[in-house]
């Protein structure tokens, strides 16, 4: 046994080593803190160009200070948001300004065009002409891919910039976003907060630019990734095989509605708290010409009933194919009595009703097929009902743009005549949405009484826009082709690609899509297109 003096010496040396380690650690922390302070004092590292949270954190503002070439101070969309067409507004709000912000996803951002052809741009033209005594600013703060959770921090940032009106047109990404960003949505809140603290430092901002880390890189040219089509984390793709957890359950659907309501209510309250008005606009989508991406039977359907359902639907399909849609609908009704939860069956009913000129029945069935879509790309029609309820409860303005699109559609069936693909409005629809909003503001006397509006509408006709900018057609077709590929609608995709290359044979993205489609067809071994556009009813 060692004598006590030896044990004391060893213990003392141990504490000395521990003290040295602690001293070194403290010195290192102090050096990092000192360097961070120095960077902040000198302004180095403040221009963030990368957001590691993809908009789910408040560490990166929506707008940052900038200066125009003529020296005018403005706020401009933060570079870290990676918005393709940044927007800006004056840093000092004029005394006679009417400042409007539009919040939403790609449908509001202007896809498939740019922000200059979004409904916000047409609204700007109309309001400026109608209200010449005011300085009108309509700022597009919509970001492609955002759901309501990421819009909330955007609205909180907007509240700092003296808004007069917030317009919300959103709801299409509530199911897709949690699946694609599960690594952020599902992160432990304590870890997320620690990461926020780290990412808010100037040191992190500088490190993100280092080649070895490589996170702060410039966006690459548009290119479609065919390799992600069967990845369950792909944001919009329709899966060719059922993968566990890929499709939202009924409980997840209900939660999405609650989540959407909460975020819209909170955004509304944030604006009302700073004295701004809020306008909730119903969202439209392609019901009549875009089949559901996935279908499934109701839970608890027994084998005997499922077999009978198959027989009735098969008979209905046969009759419809022979041209006897009236008899087909009778067969489909028998199947519906057994299982009314199958999106494909409702689509078939809508298709037959449409052929027979039964427009109301077709419209209702198309909407039901969309609501039951197991791979939802759009929004449930119930979201528009929620917007009406929230507007009534919170005293917000409510504008039914979806109804306006329906009224402008042949026989009330909203389809390809209004939308480029499934949810993105074309130029006519964007102009119609803008006109509906402007008319609602005038009727409400906002920002001036209706009698003081000039009645001038300078928005150019759609045909004139196409003639002036032929590239608009190309942009529409490229986005449609990509959406059709994601939805496994190969005929639709090939038609759109053919149209692009017919007008622009050297279009890089069109050529890449054509090559990808050819490889995809070859992999499936049929040497041609891999599938049609009609959804399977079973």
Descriptive report:
With 538 residues, the protein is of the alpha/beta class. Among the domains are: 96-175 and 248-292 and 379-457, Rossmann fold, CATH 3.40.50.1110; 303-371, Alpha Horseshoe (Serine Threonine Protein Phosphatase 5, Tetratricopeptide repeat), CATH 1.25.40.10. The chain contains 20 helices and 8 strands. It has a 5-stranded parallel β-sheet with strand order 5-4-6-7-8, sandwiched between helices. β1 and β2 (73-77) form a beta hairpin. The protein is globular and about 95 Å long.
The portion of residues forming beta strands comes to 5-15%
As for the CATH topology of the domain at 96-175 and 248-292 and 379-457, it is: Rossmann fold
The biggest sheet, with number of strands, parallel, antiparallel or mixed sense and barrel status, is: 5 strands, parallel
Strand order of the largest sheet: 5-4-6-7-8
Class by SSE composition: alpha/beta
Q: Report the average pLDDT across residues.
A: 87
CATH class of the domain at 96-175 and 248-292 and 379-457: Alpha Beta
CATH superfamily of the domain at 96-175 and 248-292 and 379-457: SGNH hydrolase
Poorly predicted ranges: 527-531
Question: Percentage of helical residues?
Answer: 40-55%
Q: End-to-end span in angstroms?
A: 82 Å
Number of strand elements: 8
Rounded to an integer in angstroms, the radius of gyration calculated over CA atoms is 28 Å
The CATH architecture classification of the domain at 96-175 and 248-292 and 379-457 is: 3-Layer(aba) Sandwich
**Quick one: overall form?**
globular
Number of helices: 20
SSE ordering: HEEEEHHEHEHHHHHEHHHHHEHHHHHH
């Amino acid at each position: 046994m060692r004598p006590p003096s030896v044990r004391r010496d060893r213990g003392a040396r141990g504490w000395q080593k521990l003290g040295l380690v602690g001293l070194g650690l403290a010195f290192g922390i102090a050096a990092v803190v000192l360097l961070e302070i120095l960077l902040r004092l000198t302004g180095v590292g403040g221009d963030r160009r990368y957001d590691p949270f993809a908009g789910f954190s408040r560490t990166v503002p929506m707008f940052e200070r900038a200066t125009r070439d003529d020296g005018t101070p403005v706020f401009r969309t933060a570079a870290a948001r990676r918005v393709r067409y940044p927007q800006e507004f004056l840093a000092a709000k004029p005394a006679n300004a009417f400042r409007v912000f539009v919040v939403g996803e790609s449908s509001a951002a202007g896809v498939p065009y740019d922000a200059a052809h979004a409904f916000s741009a047409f609204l700007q033209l109309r309001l400026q002409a109608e209200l010449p005594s005011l300085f009108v600013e309509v700022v597009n703060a919509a970001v492609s891919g955002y759901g309501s959770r990421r819009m909330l921090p955007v609205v909180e940032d907007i509240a700092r910039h003296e808004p007069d009106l917030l317009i919300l047109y959103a709801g299409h990404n509530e199911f897709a976003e949690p699946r694609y960003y599960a690594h952020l949505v599902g992160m432990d809140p304590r870890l997320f907060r620690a990461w926020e603290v780290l990412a808010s430092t100037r040191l992190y901002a500088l490190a993100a630019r280092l080649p070895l880390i490589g996170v702060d890189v410039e966006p690459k040219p548009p290119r479609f990734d065919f390799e992600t089509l069967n990845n369950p984390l792909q944001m919009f793709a329709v899966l060719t095989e059922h993968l566990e957890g890929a499709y939202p359950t009924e409980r997840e659907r209900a939660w999405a509605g609650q989540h959407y309501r909460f975020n819209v209510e909170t955004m509304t309250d944030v604006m009302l708290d700073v004295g701004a008005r809020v306008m909730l606009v119903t969202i439209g989508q392609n019901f009549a010409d875009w089949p559901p991406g996935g279908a499934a039977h109701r839970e608890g359907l027994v084998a005997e009933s499922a077999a009978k359902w198959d027989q009735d639907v098969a008979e209905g399909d046969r009759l419809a194919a022979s041209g006897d849609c009236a008899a087909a609908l009778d067969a489909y009704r028998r199947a519906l009595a057994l299982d009314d939860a199958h999106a494909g069956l409702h689509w078939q009913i809508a298709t037959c009703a449409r052929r027979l000129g039964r427009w109301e029945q077709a419209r209702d069935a198309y909407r039901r097929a969309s609501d039951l879509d197991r791979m939802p790309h759009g929004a449930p029609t119930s979201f528009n009902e929620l917007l009406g309820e929230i507007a009534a409860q919170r005293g917000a303005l409510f504008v039914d743009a979806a109804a306006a699109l329906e009224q402008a559609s042949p026989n009330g069936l909203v389809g390809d005549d209004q939308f480029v693909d499934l949810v993105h409005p074309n130029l006519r629809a964007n102009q119609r949405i803008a006109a509906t909003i402007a008319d609602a503001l005038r009727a409400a006397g906002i920002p001036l009484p209706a009698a003081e509006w000039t009645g001038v509408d300078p928005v150019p006709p759609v045909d004139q826009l196409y003639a002036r900018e032929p590239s608009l057609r190309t942009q529409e077709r490229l986005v449609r082709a990509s959406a059709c590929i994601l939805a496994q609608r190969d005929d639709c995709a090939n038609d759109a690609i053919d149209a692009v290359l017919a007008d622009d044979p050297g279009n890089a993205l069109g050529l890449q899509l054509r090559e990808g489609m050819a490889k995809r067809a070859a992999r499936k071994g049929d040497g041609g297109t891999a599938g049609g556009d009609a959804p399977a009813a079973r």
